[in-house]
Structures
1.
Amino acid sequence: MMKMSRRTFLKGSAGTLAAIALSAGTGASINAFEASAASEEAVWKNSFCAFCHFPGCATKVKVVNGVAVEIMGDKNSETNQGRLCLRGMSTLNNLYNPYRVKAPMKRTNPEKGLDIDPGWVEITWEEALDIVASKLKAAMDEDPRSILISGGFGVEESFRVAPAQAVFGTPNYLTSPGTLCPEHFNQLHLNGQMLDRIDLEYVDYIVEIGRTMGSDWCATSANHSSHYADALERGAKFVTVNPYCTHSAQRGEWVPIMPGTDTALGFALLYTIIHEIGVYDEHFMKVRSNAPYLVDPSFEMIKGRKVYKQGYIRNADGKPLVWDEVLNQAVPFDSSMGESYALLGTYEVEGKTVTTSFQVLKDYVKEYTPEWAEPITTIPAAKVREIARDLVSHARIGSTINIEGFEFPYRPSCIFMGRGMASHMLGVEAAKALGTVNLLLGNLDVPGGIQGTANANWYTLNADQDGILEARGIMANQVTGEDIVYPPATVDMGGFYPMRHAAIPLAWKTINDPEKYHIGYPINVMMVHGADPLGSGATCQEVIEALKKIPFTFSVAYHYDLPTQFADILLAESSLLEKDALYRVFRNEKEVTHQTRGLMGTMVRRPAVDNVYNTRIPEDILADLAERLGRLPAFSGACNDNGPRSLFSAVSPTMAAGLTPEYALEPNKKYTWREFIDRKISSDFGPEAIAEFDKCAFKPFRLPLKETYNYYYVPDNAIRLPVYYERMVRNGEKMMQQLKEFNVTVPNQDMDHIYSHYSGMPVWYDNAGFETTEEYPFKAVNWKVHYGVNNTGGLYENAYVQEIIDHSNSYVKCVWVPASAAADLGIQEGDTVVVESRFGKTQGKAHLSQFMHPKCIGIPGNFGRRTGYMNPLKNTGVHFNSLLTVDESTLNPISLSLESSPQIKVYKI
Ligand code: SF4
């Protein structure tokens, strides 16, 4: 790998984010800030940005005569040290965007469609809220379940859904982006929480699979590029396994892979490490994994797939047994410190022949050599062996590091996985296989390795009755599994998929055909806030039919987007700089150095400017609706609550959620959002802190460094991680039993197919959608671009952002055709091409690139969401999701993720 200086890194960056992020904190810009503040009669207001997953870059907003004219990072803030990414810098255009919804609006044209003029007319807030409340009231009287909330990333992260559910009394809530980000399975099982991060302070060798670092990562923060540059400068090596040569691949090593074949790579790495290298962290495997647990090694063949359906061998008390090599007998897993437990071997226990779980793994992967994987993944066998050797040698197995007096295992080598690995038919299998490679390296929750983003002081990490890590908080069902709910409680059919990530796409099917899906009620009212099921989902026509079928839809909307085309009433939402806000800041980014590791705090925003238009804050809108519906107690209850459904659970989970009794909201009184926030400040810090937050937006605190590694809380023998996924076996059995009791099957599914995925080992089979065909000789590939992380705040329509794209990286609006295939396809740079899958097509200008796998066509970002009634900037670029489907046979049967790399053909027109 070329040694990269910080200067070279910035100069060579294809994107502008890193340059902006790093330069924003320089003395030059601060001097400019101070000079301009002195020379003009300007007011500089404290604010903060929330246009990504890590809200909390503190800003200074220059306001002249009530007009915000400049924004920059606050150099005094620990969260971003003056840095601001281009999304944060674009906030001014969010405020003054001419395509905003500027007042409450009513549709006059009853006909709905993407290209039909809704005939909006402006109405008063009173009229708008009265109409919405009357529709909600009628629906609540008939059946509260007939109200559907579709929430997503609006002006800023819109997680205020819990109180809306409390007010309307409905269980039906859909998130916008979940169908394409099922990467959390791995983190939940191995870190006990939904996100992981890499330790850029210490790591030496990283294999990124299906993700990228620095600027292109979906939740990239203003700090990420800086942290990444520091790691490069320090000499850390990055290997990127991806069909597309990402920014970080351009600075490390690129290993092209056929999309959807990551499981095969995982198997080949496991084979190489276990059978050829023979070096792995035996201590970790004995004391921090279930590798020694005894199981019956037999398997079943289901649909031609090898499926492990055996549970642990247990004693009379139900405790899993291990084999103690000193005592030469089976003992309960928690009998000793574990050093004497056998990792490999076959034993006789009560007349049964059993093996360790690790022996099952070793035998299972024996046939999956690098040579077996090569034609599937297209990665040469020699390269797999090289990566396996590098992973092991850089892991420094056996070494330790002392941090603040605490001795940690030191494992600076890891595989870092992302959505590109997970959004496939075998995505969960890939997570299991590649996650097990990390277990072999012993790198979980220790310096240099893979850690949970939340520390144990937030989510208490516990073991279940079998000693295995239990997931907590959001998405824990992906580990624990849920009971089948029949008839389904929600229209997304989540109750039929016990370990799902998100069942969103099925909602549109059930609305269109409720009987087939056992849904006994219609959806009468839908509220949209920040979601875009049309642009972010798949099978657009199904969504359109469902939206047309719902009798009444209202949208809390910042700008005219696709869902507003189907709304009856628009409730105009204020822009970020017009809003009060309070956020927990949890600056444990996904790519972290000591600079921000352990940084937490509370951040409060006061409006920098008055409302430009006749808009309102969503929380105030909800309080108004609650009042009209006679549901203020439900709303106040959600605010006062300290449970997971509380208003503040998303705001301040690191501190006491909810409000202390002294500051609790009275049940029947309406409060403004500003009053909520001041009560929350008082509740957490005392009333005198209100004035403090007026002066300084951020109140930080830092965890001691050693407490930011979860190994500190859960050392050897405290919690074990799965090599053998016995929980999946149990969940599969329970699912089948419960379906039998209800005398139903999962609609539109092959039950053997679903059942086969509930296996103790990662399942493998051919024809899982990763192959190309004669008719569809390519795979489509999509990657996120930092210009529009989750499209928070309408970034794809932000004129500042678009201008940066057009001047620096306009290729992101093109169809990327591998240069090696262009001649055969008769395609030249700039030709208009059609990309067509079995399920839909899209078109755009061709860009010939050597940065694509030769069998893949790339379409970046989420551009091109077309309708004539939106900001025309939105119409530029290519819409990738038009190629996707939510046909159940193509979904991952565990996570319900869409297949994100369909087979396609491409041709010039
Ligand atoms: S989008 Fe995120 S990283 Fe960028 S400035 Fe805003 S808060 Fe910071």
2.
Amino acid sequence: VQGLPLAAKRRADNPRMVRWAGTDTVLGGLADGGEDRFTLLPHHLCTRLVQDTTGSSIAYAEVRDLARSREVRVAADNYVVAAGAVLTPQLLWASRIRPPALGRYLTEHPTTFCQVTLLQSLIGQATTSEHFSSQLLAYRERFPDDELPIPDDDPDPNVWIPVTEGRPWHAQINRDSFHYGDIPPHVDGRLIVDLRWFGLVDPRPENRVFFSDRYTDVHDMPQPTFDFAYSAEDGARLHRMMAEMIRAALAIGGFLPGAEPRFPIPGLPLHIAGTVRMGEDPQTSVVNTDSRVWGYGNLYLGGNGVIPTGTASNPTLTSIAMALKAADRMIAGG
Ligand SMILES: Cc1cc2nc3c(=O)[nH]c(=O)nc-3n(C[C@H](O)[C@H](O)[C@H](O)COP(=O)(O)OP(=O)(O)OC[C@H]3O[C@@H](n4cnc5c(N)ncnc54)[C@H](O)[C@@H]3O)c2cc1C
């Protein structure tokens, strides 16, 4: 069990608060404009990538300015589509770039979830632990009537048990407020933790998102539809994962009524991957190992859709690693 790495920093001006990393953290000063070589077009939707006459290169991107209802053309040496694991293949489909693996091999973490109220014996250990003694003393001086030995401004717990050989799931214990993990109003939130175990599924071509040439979404882009099922092996792994989560839950507490162990519905983990997967074979992948679309010299893809294998852990860091490799290759000239 380890501390979960978080993309957050405690604020110097108010240490009770943290600042979470966002797009603005990545862009830095670029987000505010004023840099000649960088332009951000907010409220613009890329509707199509138009190929040149060779059919192996993108000539320009058609972009719709949603605020002013006008079309813009963007021409570049290289094009990178990083529109999420569903809308990246949507844009390729709309552009009639339709390799056989597009939208296929879709993976997502199957998840198990429950909430427990912590055992009294564990809470009691906070009182005797040297680790917490100075914080607790200071807290007791401020709030002598609080019966719980947990300062109410203590950061929410965030721990994980990483994937290990023979145990292909990622365990997180935290106090999150996903909509499926609210704290009931009559229970002190310091007594509750959420257990969220993320498993993996094997990538299979029949698990897919596919697009319609007839029906469209609200932006007139091809409508996505999903075909997704667990294989027998996926199901067996999921069953073992549930058993382990229940064992861990009972070791630290009792189930919070209404939040007993369950399988949240597919889609809820928000970690779809594989839909424009990386690989070495154009028949079973969409991009090569530099994230470049097979058959196109100047079209690259980024994001979780590129991840080719089943994964149990949160995906963003993996996608960033792949994006950095692609960026290095682009800078080096393809
Ligand atoms: C509630 C929640 C919690 C999460 N927690 C974690 C976590 O703890 N750890 C972790 O690793 N990951 C987490 N994730 C996943 C993480 O958010 C994604 O991995 C990450 O955002 C992917 O980044 P991206 O830039 O590839 O795609 P996105 O962040 O999805 O960005 C894609 C962008 O493209 C835009 N777009 C789409 N189509 C078009 C188009 N045609 N033209 C122009 N723009 C377009 C979209 O509007 C969007 O802004 C979480 C996700 C959610 C929703």
